[in-house]
Amino acid sequence: MKTSFDIVTDVISLINVPAVTHNLDGKIWPFVRPDNREKVDITVGLLAGTNEWLQEAIVNIRIHASDFYTFNSVSQIILPLVESQYRDTFYTEVDNSGKLITNPDGTRFFRIRVHYYSIQSNYKKI
Hints:
This protein is of the alpha+beta class. The protein contains three helices and six strands; from the N terminus they run ααβββαβββ.
């Protein structure tokens, strides 16, 4: 079984490319973005995952920025990088191409939801 860290690492590997990173003045963070950042960052986190022979998970990619232009331009780069991507040990497809969310403190992020699938070669149902 892949852990949540493995899954997030796999998805980060798809988007941690110059086309994305050159459009950030911040970083790509696994799970949690440090507080009080004013840079354009991305966080990748896991919403839910299964432990079946076909492991499934829902991954959220969150673009943290202050303006709609940045949300749009970065999401346009990310979407093809995670849509229908087949790798040796996993497959991804976009579930939701984006939703703008406002936090209680007034900061915003743009969320892209991705389905993640991995066949477990060592699966044994006991």
